[in-house]
């Protein structure tokens, strides 16, 4: 998942205290800030196996289980503007420390939820955790963009995003190992008491570790705060979110972000349940014939793919985005961004249609590969919008960040479709999202470009 920076801009190559930060100091500051990208990527991707786990633990429908993702991504809608105001009033380093403290509080709420087995408390914990991540992104993204020469801002963002992708790749592996061992949801009945207790203990263990690691990260950042503060350029407050509503392209871009994040999250959070279904991999050993995939999933020796094995395979969905980002960065230097996005959205939509219309074992491999084509969509939507929006960069990016709430709403609709028509048929909604995004990319190619000089806004 990605973010933008609402209401805040950073002047690339700026100074702090009237003095240009040295290359070594800026490099050290950038390394410190980049550790934050890994942390929020890892935590965000834990939501995928968590959705599958709570479905069994609390005997939920797909719609109810998807509320976990909705509670997490709703924080972007609620907290983006308050976070922007906070960062504009505090130093970015202070805001980062406050964000990490909020994330620790969210982890502790998750610990309480696991110990008393309360799903409402799980939702509250996820909202608090994501609220901290929202503040963290608002503070850290522009720092990553601006800590160094303006000509290399794109490279720095891509490098930081790569660390974010490493986190999203590893999160589902740990979550599946801790949350999904022995969990079975296909029958729709309640879990065995021992399996339920084990899954709750896994959630408890994961968020206990995370709270400790976040506390260590906060200490690490506190010790390096002087380096970051000296290297960071000054932060200027933006013109306000409302000015973006006067720009047609800011609105179109917000709609595109809404659809993209919603489709990406809906596919990711449903993936383990989808792969585990009998119509896909639930009764097949075909995935274990693929050497790398077999090693990643770790067969339990029982015919078919268990929910835990499927949960580990979800890492490939996010790993594809990591690989696609590296390849896409190279392709974007050779091809027009709107054309590449049109191609990638068309392929992703076609993959969804294959799953809906053909299904079977092959659909599992196709669904995992969608992540490869998701890779460039967020940054390209963001940059295409910024280039064409007549509103300020600050206001435009604020509206785009608010639109990440698509990750809270579209997964609910996909969950409802899965309840009524099955996991494969539910991918018709993401297919529609990708079709609209393809139209957005083609329209961007025909629209006039508004150039800005000197501003760097954050991208995913």
UniProtKB/TrEMBL annotation:
The chain crosses the membrane at residues 26-47, 67-87, 94-113, 119-145, 157-180, 206-228, 249-275, 315-333, 340-359, 365-386, 398-417, 423-444. It is found in: Cell inner membrane. PANTHER family: L-FUCOSE-PROTON SYMPORTER, PROTEIN TSGA. Residues 1-22 are annotated as: Disordered. The keyword Cell membrane applies. SUPFAM superfamilies: MFS general substrate transporter (SSF103473). Gene3D superfamilies: MFS general substrate transporter like domains. It is a multi-pass membrane protein. The keyword Transmembrane helix applies. GO terms for cellular component: plasma membrane. Keywords: Cell membrane, Membrane, Transmembrane, Transmembrane helix. This is MFS transporter, FHS family, L-fucose permease. It comes from Sphingomonas gellani.
